Amino acid sequence: MQEKLKLTLLFITHDLLVAAGFCHRVLVFDKGKIIEENSGRKMLDNPQEYLTKKMVEASPSLPR
Question: Does residue 34 sit in helix, strand or coil?
Fold first, then answer.
């Protein structure tokens, strides 16, 4: 749908697994500023920022 209609969608969630499966690009914000940006899989596999690491660790839906 996105490609066919040439849309840009903004999807907001705290669930990184959902974001990784649904989005081409994932951005993590802290206090209104982007602190990390990557593909969803790379974000889950190798988070760089402290807040992103804590979100990955805290997600009950992530396979361990």
Answer: strand
pTM above 0.70, yes or no: yes
CB contact set of 56 (below 8 Å; sequence gap of 6+): 16, 43, 44, 47, 62
Number of CB atoms found within 10 A of residue 26's CB? 21
Residues 12-23 pLDDT 10s: 988 888 888 888
Q: Residue 3 is which amino acid?
A: E
Which residue from 9, 34, 7 is spatially nearest to 23, judged by alpha carbons? 9
User: How far, in Å, CA of 17 to CA of 63, rounded?
Assistant: 9
Burial 28-59 (b: 16+ CB within 10 A, else e): beeeeeeebebebeebbeebeeeebeebbeeb
